[in-house]
Amino acid sequence: MISFIISANNHIPRIKSIIERLSTALGDRCDGFNAFPTAGATTGRAVYRFDGTGLRVAFTLEPKGLKPIQVSKGWMRPPEPVPPPIPRIGMVFRTSPAFGRARWFGRGPHENYPGRTASAFFGRYARAAADFLFPYAKPQESGNRGDVYELTVTDGAGKGFAVTAPGRPLHVNLLAYTAEELERRRHQAELEPCGDLIVHLDGFQRGVDGSGAGLHADQELVAEGTYSFSFVLSPATF
């Protein structure tokens, strides 16, 4: 179910148009869209629920777009057999490849994942978006930066967007390739850019085990678990 409150003022067209674009992007994965005008309101809220998954995404919008986006994964009765662990819980979107510069406050400067963070120290770092992916011999998931509280992605003129985590830090990644493209290719030379910048904003990721001893319980993401995180998406400012 998607529910949204719009105001009876000049902000109606802008806020409603954002929600309609979100609804179109999600398509038939949601039940529908309802708009309820309320005089005097200046903010709107859209809640997306995905049947059978326990996933809930809530967008709170105001004219400046500075409210946190809340993502939660609630308990779900697993089917038989029990599904495998979840690799990540987060959001992914596409934007212009012109946004090729990134600055963040979190772990870096190189890639790091839960269970592999000892050499990635907290700090403020800057890197080209094209350099996030690590060129392993076989293409695969790579380039993640963990424990990120602030991320700014811009073009050469300084225009772009900023992401901040008001609570739990994020895992972030910027890639020219979709996850499906990385999965199906066997060699780096075979990769085909999708034409957009793929932005990953994850609240949770499954740990990476390189020791052979297996993951600790707190590094697993299970289908019947409950997870919640939020972030603020806003225009970049300098």
Set out the fold topology.
Elements lengths: L2 E5 L4 H15 L7 E5 L5 E7 L4 E7 L7 E5 L14 E8 L5 E8 L12 E8 L16 E4 L1 E5 L5 E5 L5 E6 L3 H6 L12 E9 L21 E9 L3
Parallel strand pairs: 1-2
Antiparallel strand pairs: 3-4, 4-5, 5-14, 6-13, 7-8, 7-10, 9-12, 10-11, 11-14, 12-13
Any overview of this molecule?
- A hairpin with a 5-residue loop joins β10 and β11.
- Mean pLDDT is 76; it is low at 1-10 and 31-37.
- With 238 residues, the chain is mainly beta.
- It has helices spanning 12-26, 179-184; strands at residues 3-7, 34-38, 44-50, 55-61, 69-73, 88-95, 101-108, 121-128, 145-148, 150-154, 160-164, 170-175, 197-205, 227-235.
What distinguishing features does this structure have?
four-stranded antiparallel beta sheet, eight-stranded antiparallel beta sheet, globular, 238 residues, single chain
N to C succession of SSEs? EHEEEEEEEEEEEHEE
Query: In percent, how much strand structure appears in the residues?
Result: 35-45%
Global outline: globular
**Largest beta-sheet characterization:** 8 strands, antiparallel
How are strands sequenced across the largest beta sheet? 3-4-5-14-11-10-7-8
In short:
9% of the residues lie in helices and 38% in strands. The N terminus is likely disordered.
